Amino acid sequence: NYYETLVEAINNGNGDTLKKGITDLRVGIQRNQESAKALIEELTKFKNAIGEDVRVFGSHKETLQSILKNQGADVETDQKRLDEVLGQVNYYKKLESDGLI
Questions:
Q1: CA distances for 17 relative to 4, 22, 28, 48, 84, angstroms
Q2: How much is the CA Rg of the chain, to the nearest whole Å?
Q3: What is the reported pTM?
């Protein structure tokens, strides 16, 4: 624990330990900073990839709906029914999480 080491070095007047503790702390901070930057870069790449996937999925969804409509499938009715079923599922999940069932 850097804090305890530094406080103890200050209280005991141990300059060498204080210098070493501060140096170690600085190195640790720099390492963490580098790791944080790398993590931020990876998360940014991930976010961009997800955004691209969402856009591609959206265009594929519209294409599929268009094909199904041309073949006589009633996508809108199916979507409404799916939304109703999902609403019911979410309702019962909420009741269950509230301990009512």
A1: 12, 8, 16, 46, 67
A2: 29
A3: 0.46
